[in-house]
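cache lookup: miss for this entity combination. No prior model stored, computing from scratch. Input as submitted by user K.M.:
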Amino acid sequence: AQTVTQSQPEMSVQEAETVTLSCTYDTSESDYYLFWYKQPPSRQMILVIRQEAYKQQNATENRFSVNFQKAAKSFSLKISDSQLGDAAMYFCAYRRGGGADGLTFGKGTHLIIQP
Amino acid sequence: SAVISQKPSRDICQRGTSLTIQCQVDSQVTMMFWYRQQPGQSLTLIATANQGSEATYESGFVIDKFPISRPNLTFSTLTVSNMSPEDSSIYLCSVVKTGGTEAFFGQGTRLTVV
C-alpha cells in the first residue's frame, strides 16, 4: 500500500521569503500522480500544484514549484515570495494512475506566515 | 473545474442517531469519493461511490456504518449511522472528472456528535 509522509507538522516563514515543505512517499507503482493541496481555515481543499510521475520536468504554478525526485520518492513544495494568504494547512497527496482510486494524504504541514 | 455543493455544511447530532450528507456536482463525473477528516488530522478515504453498484469501502470502514448511495452521475449521499462522539469529524465529498487527474472537493460537512 502507498504511504505519504510529511515530517514537518508546522513551518513558519517571514512574509516575502521562501519556504520549502517536505513530502516523501512510498509506492510500487510506476504510474501515479502527486499533488499539493491547501486547506485554509474555511476548510475548502484547494489544489496548489500537481505532478505526473512520468514527467521529469518539475511542475511550476506562479510562486509555487515542486522538486520531484522520483528515485528518492520525494516531492517537496517551494513557495516563493510568501504572502499572508498562503497561511494554511498544506497536504501532500498521492493517486495511482490509470485507475479509479482516491487520494492518499500525508498528515499535513501547518504553514504560518509572519508579517 | 467542478462545482460541488455539499449539504449540510454543519450539524450537531445526538448520539445514536443518523445523519445523511448530500453531494451535488454541476456536471457528470465518473468518480466520486467520500473522505473523513478527524479534528486536527488529515483526510482519510472512506469509500468510492459507484454509480449503479455498491460503494467500494476502504479498510476500517463498513457499509453498515457508512451507507452510500449514488443514484446518478451528479449526486451521492453518505449516511453516518448510529453516531457516537468519535464520529465527530469533517466529511468531504470529492470528484475526479472523466479523463482528469485533479480531485475537486466540496466544502465539507462539520459533524459534532453530543
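stored under new cache key. Chain B touches chain A through 23 residues (CB under 8 Å).
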